[in-house]
Amino acid sequence: MLYIYKGEEIKKIDRQAESLGMDSFTLMEAAGSGLFRQLTDDFETSKQCFLILAGKGNNGGDGIVLARYLKTAGASCTLCFPAGLPKTEPARRHLDYYEALGYSYETEPFNLTATVMIDALLGAGTSLPLSTEMKNLCVWLNSQKAERVSIDVPTGASTDTGNCDSSVIHAHKTYIVHGYKPSRFLYPAASCYGEPSLIEIGLPQTARWTISTVSATSPSVQFKGSNAHKGTFGHGLLIAGTKSMPGSAALAALGCVSSGAGKLTVQTAEEAVSVIASHVPEAMYDFHTGVEDAHSFSAIAAGCGRPADDAMEDIVQQLLQQEKPVILDAGALAPRSYKAAKCSVIVTPHPGEFARMTGKQTKDIQLNRIQEASQYAVEQGVTVVLKGEYTVIAFSDGSGVVNTTGNEGLSKGGSGDTLTGILLALLMRHSSLEEAVKDAVYLHGLCADIWKRNRPAQALRPFNLHDWIPAAISEQKERGD
Ligand SMILES: NC(=O)C1=CN([C@@H]2O[C@H](COP(=O)(O)OP(=O)(O)OC[C@H]3O[C@@H](n4cnc5c(N)ncnc54)[C@H](O)[C@@H]3O)[C@@H](O)[C@H]2O)[C@@H](O)CC1
Ligand SMILES: Nc1ncnc2c1ncn2[C@@H]1O[C@H](COP(=O)(O)OP(=O)(O)O)[C@@H](O)[C@H]1O
C-alpha cells in the first residue's frame, strides 16, 4: 500500500514520533541511509561525481547524511550549502558529525561540476514563491548537464497543491521520503517529479489517503457464486440517453454488462433504444420518467447522455429520497445539497462538472484536486470521483484514494460513460461501496493501460474500452495484492 501525506501531516508525524522516543536526528539518519541505498540502485556510484545542494532545513539535513554515506563509500561527492548553513537542530548535529569525520563542504555552487546533482534545497517545508536566491539556484541547476535528483519534493514545487514556482527544479528522479505528497499527483507540479521512488524510514504508515491497488480477492475480480443465477449479481437501473445522445447510454450499458451485471434496465428515450439495443441486447428498456420502483434495483446510475434540465433534476430529487445507492454523472450533476439524501451517493464529475457543482474555477480545482474533492465529500456526505489523470476518489469520512491507472487514450468523449457502467455493475454486487468505487476506477484505467502496451493511445475508442475489461480482470487475478 502506498500512502499520501500533506506537509502538515508530516510535521505532525515527526512530532508524534519524537514524543514516542524516535527523535528527528534518528529519522534523518534513516532517510539519508535510504536515499543512499536508492542512489546506489539507480547509479553506479563509483563512476559518478555527485554534488549535493543542501538547504537550511531538514531536507538539507537528509542531504548531509546522504553526503556522508557517499563519502564513506568512497564515492566522489561534494556537499554545498549555497543558501547558508543548516538551521534545524538535527541537520546541525549531522553536519557536526560529518565534519568530525574530516569531511568538508562548499558554499559557492556555481563553479562546481558533477554528473549527478542532488536537490536537497527545499522539501515538505516549502512555501511559495521562492526567494530570489532559491530561484537563481534552481535556474542554474536546471541548466546543468547532469542527472537531477530531488529529495522528497522538487525545489520550487508546492507540497500540497499543483502550484510551482516558474523556476522549479525539473527533476529526472525524486526520492520521496516516508510517503507521497499531494503535489506528486497535481499538475503542473506532478510533471517536475520525474521518476519517483519511495524511501521508507521505518515510521508507521498512518495516512488516510492511499494510492489505488485492486485486491485479487475483491468481488470485482473474483466472480464467485455457487448455484448462481442472474439475480445473484444484481439488477441495475441506468437512467441515461436521449434522442440526440443515445451513444452515452450505450457506452455505459456496455461497461455495465461487461463487468458482471446480472441484469440491467435502461430507462431512456424511446428514440434512443434502437441504438442502445443494437450494442447491448442483454439490457431491458423502460420509458418511464419516474423512479417509483427504485427499490427493486440493486443500484442506480443516472445522467449519462442527459441534459442538466428540470426533468433530470426532478429524477435526481426522487433518487435521493430512496435507499438504493446512486451514481450521478454528467447531466445529473448540478449545484445541490446531498445532506438530506436517504441513499449513498457517488458523484463522478470531470473537473468542469465539479466547477459547475461547486461554483469554483476549474483551474483552482485542478491545482488542489485532492483537497477540493475531499472537502466536498466530507461536507456533503457523498463519495466524489473527480476524474482526469490521477482520478481522485474522496470518501465522506475524509479518507480517499488517488488512482494511477489510465492514460491519454481515455481523453475522449464517452470514456466516462463506460466508467459509470463499470461502477454500476461493481456497486451492484460489492458489499463495500468504497471497494467497488476504487476497483471500478482502477479497472477502467487498466483497460486503457493494457491497450496502450501494444497500440497507440490515440487509436483507443471509448466504444472499444469494454472489450478490454476481461483482460483487465484477468490481470488483476494474476497480480492482485
Ligand atoms: N517524517 C519525514 O517524512 C521526515 C522528513 N525529513 C525531511 O525533512 C524535510 C522537511 O524539512 P523542513 O520542515 O525543515 O522543511 P524544508 O527542509 O523543506 O525547508 C524549510 C526551510 O526552508 C525555508 N524556505 C521555505 N520556503 C522557502 C522559499 N520559498 N524560499 C526560500 N526558503 C524557503 C524555510 O524558511 C525553512 O528554513 C522533508 O522534505 C524531508 O526531506 C527527514 O529529515 C526525516 C523525517
Ligand atoms: N490523461 C488521462 N489519464 C487517465 N485517465 C484519463 C485521462 N483523460 C481522461 N481520463 C479518464 O477518462 C474518463 C473521461 O470521462 P469524462 O470526461 O466524463 O468523459 P465523457 O463524459 O465524455 O464520457 C474519466 O474516467 C477520466 O478519468
From TrEMBL:
<dbReference type="GO" id="GO:0046496">
    <property type="term" value="P:nicotinamide nucleotide metabolic process"/>
</dbReference>
<dbReference type="Pfam" id="PF01256">
    <property type="entry name" value="Carb_kinase"/>
</dbReference>
<feature type="binding site">
    <location>
        <position position="416"/>
    </location>
    <ligand>
        <name>AMP</name>
    </ligand>
</feature>
<feature type="binding site">
    <location>
        <position position="305"/>
    </location>
    <ligand>
        <name>(6S)-NADPHX</name>
    </ligand>
</feature>
<keyword id="KW-0521">NADP</keyword>
<dbReference type="GO" id="GO:0005524">
    <property type="term" value="F:ATP binding"/>
</dbReference>
<dbReference type="Pfam" id="PF03853">
    <property type="entry name" value="YjeF_N"/>
</dbReference>
<keyword id="KW-0067">ATP-binding</keyword>
<dbReference type="GO" id="GO:0110051">
    <property type="term" value="P:metabolite repair"/>
</dbReference>
<comment type="similarity">
    <text>Belongs to the NnrD/CARKD family.</text>
</comment>
<protein>
    <recommendedName>
        <fullName>ADP-dependent (S)-NAD(P)H-hydrate dehydratase</fullName>
        <ecNumber>4.2.1.136</ecNumber>
    </recommendedName>
</protein>
<dbReference type="GO" id="GO:0046872">
    <property type="term" value="F:metal ion binding"/>
</dbReference>
<dbReference type="GO" id="GO:0052855">
    <property type="term" value="F:ADP-dependent NAD(P)H-hydrate dehydratase activity"/>
</dbReference>
<dbReference type="InterPro" id="IPR000631">
    <property type="entry name" value="CARKD"/>
</dbReference>
<keyword id="KW-0547">Nucleotide-binding</keyword>
<dbReference type="InterPro" id="IPR017953">
    <property type="entry name" value="Carbohydrate_kinase_pred_CS"/>
</dbReference>
<comment type="function">
    <text>Catalyzes the dehydration of the S-form of NAD(P)HX at the expense of ADP, which is converted to AMP. Together with NAD(P)HX epimerase, which catalyzes the epimerization of the S- and R-forms, the enzyme allows the repair of both epimers of NAD(P)HX, a damaged form of NAD(P)H that is a result of enzymatic or heat-dependent hydration.</text>
</comment>
<feature type="domain" description="YjeF N-terminal">
    <location>
        <begin position="10"/>
        <end position="209"/>
    </location>
</feature>
<comment type="similarity">
    <text>In the C-terminal section; belongs to the NnrD/CARKD family.</text>
</comment>
<dbReference type="InterPro" id="IPR004443">
    <property type="entry name" value="YjeF_N_dom"/>
</dbReference>
<feature type="binding site">
    <location>
        <position position="417"/>
    </location>
    <ligand>
        <name>(6S)-NADPHX</name>
    </ligand>
</feature>
<keyword id="KW-0520">NAD</keyword>
<dbReference type="GO" id="GO:0052856">
    <property type="term" value="F:NAD(P)HX epimerase activity"/>
</dbReference>
<dbReference type="InterPro" id="IPR029056">
    <property type="entry name" value="Ribokinase-like"/>
</dbReference>
<keyword id="KW-0630">Potassium</keyword>
<comment type="function">
    <text>Bifunctional enzyme that catalyzes the epimerization of the S- and R-forms of NAD(P)HX and the dehydration of the S-form of NAD(P)HX at the expense of ADP, which is converted to AMP. This allows the repair of both epimers of NAD(P)HX, a damaged form of NAD(P)H that is a result of enzymatic or heat-dependent hydration.</text>
</comment>
<keyword id="KW-0511">Multifunctional enzyme</keyword>
<keyword id="KW-0413">Isomerase</keyword>
<comment type="subunit">
    <text>Homotetramer.</text>
</comment>
<keyword id="KW-0456">Lyase</keyword>
<feature type="domain" description="YjeF C-terminal">
    <location>
        <begin position="213"/>
        <end position="476"/>
    </location>
</feature>
<feature type="binding site">
    <location>
        <begin position="387"/>
        <end position="391"/>
    </location>
    <ligand>
        <name>AMP</name>
    </ligand>
</feature>
<dbReference type="InterPro" id="IPR030677">
    <property type="entry name" value="Nnr"/>
</dbReference>
<dbReference type="InterPro" id="IPR036652">
    <property type="entry name" value="YjeF_N_dom_sf"/>
</dbReference>
<feature type="binding site">
    <location>
        <position position="350"/>
    </location>
    <ligand>
        <name>(6S)-NADPHX</name>
    </ligand>
</feature>
<keyword id="KW-0479">Metal-binding</keyword>
